[in-house]
Design a protein that fits this description.
globular; alpha/beta; 297 residues
Length: 297
């Protein structure tokens, strides 16, 4: 899962974006993007670490140069999760995202939060009861997806969509670090307070969502990893969520990478850019094990 790390971006996991329908295809722009990529290697193993954006405008041309060469040379593609069964994912989201305690979402919110929520829905032309059957996390996720879709950000233009298709075309072996069920449970397992806080933050940030995502995309295309770290990670104020969504997962992935270094071959690992930037990144976790990541783009 990037998961974009700010509350407004956290929705953008590979699993969550299966909720967006799209028309496949990526148009090429004149100046190719140069997103960041690192590698770890020993005498018989090379692993490329490529930070992804799960949704992109359709005019983004990034699959070129060192990234394409690294992908083409790899025997194995590793991504965060597998979203090959969108119907099953839709069903799972509904199962986890629906309330089952006999209450409505609005009834569960404190008065001020409820008023802000209803005002937002009204401003979007949605009825006040539109999200009543949903858990707060699912309502926040869906609300965040709506303006992104309207702005032309599409799962079909995301990195994983393209490389999954190319891996299938090239008959590459594929592996997922996490299951969709695990990623959805990260949301559903949040405490009520954290869920309500997440929903409130989404409401606060919806007015500037398009501009904020555009900044993230621009930093990603230019390979500005430090700026990405600031944009994606710095506003995670809920320590429990930071641990679940960032720290624990970076640690687990670094352990997988360390173990994979014992096997020969070339591997292309594509995970959310927020995991490969800033303090506590996957590279930081690898460094603790004595494995140095070298930037190659």
């Amino acid at each position: 899962m990037i998961f974009f790390r700010k509350p407004r971006f956290r929705l953008a996991s590979a699993t969550a974006l299966a909720l967006l329908t799209a028309t496949p295809g990526i148009a090429q722009e004149t100046a190719p993007a140069r997103p960041a990529m690192w590698k770890i290697a020993d005498k018989d193993t090379t692993i490329y670490l490529f930070g992804t954006i799960h949704i992109l405008p359709e005019d983004t041309h990034w699959f070129t140069g060192p990234v394409k060469d690294a992908f083409d040379s790899s025997d194995l593609l590793v991504t965060e999760t597998n979203t090959d069964s969108p119907d099953s994912l839709q069903k799972l989201f509904i199962e986890k995202g629906m309330r089952n305690d006999g209450t409505t979402l609005r009834a569960s919110l404190p008065p001020e939060e409820r008023a802000a929520f209803e005002k937002t829905l009204s401003g979007m032309g949605l009825p006040a009861e539109a999200f009543d059957p949903f858990e707060a996390w699912y309502a926040g996720l869906l609300l965040s997806l709506l303006p992104l879709k309207a702005a032309g950000f599409d799962k079909a233009n995301g990195v994983e969509t393209l490389i999954d298709a190319k891996a299938a075309e090239d008959h590459k072996t594929r592996k997922a670090l996490e299951t969709p069920e695990y990623q959805i449970e990260l949301f559903d397992g949040m405490s009520v307070d954290s869920q309500n806080r997440y929903l409130g933050e989404v409401l606060d940030q919806l007015p500037t969502l398009r501009e904020d995502v555009a900044k993230v995309v621009a930093a990603w295309k230019a390979g500005r990893a430090d700026e990405l770290a600031r944009l994606l990670n710095e506003d995670e104020s809920d320590e429990a969520m930071r641990k679940a969504f960032i720290t624990d997962r970076n640690t687990a992935w670094a352990k997988w990478l360390e173990a994979r270094m014992a096997e020969p071959g070339t591997v292309f690992v594509a995970v959310g850019a927020g995991h490969l930037a800033g303090e506590g990144s996957v590279q930081d976790q690898l460094a603790k094990a004595g494995i140095k990541a070298i930037r190659v783009q």
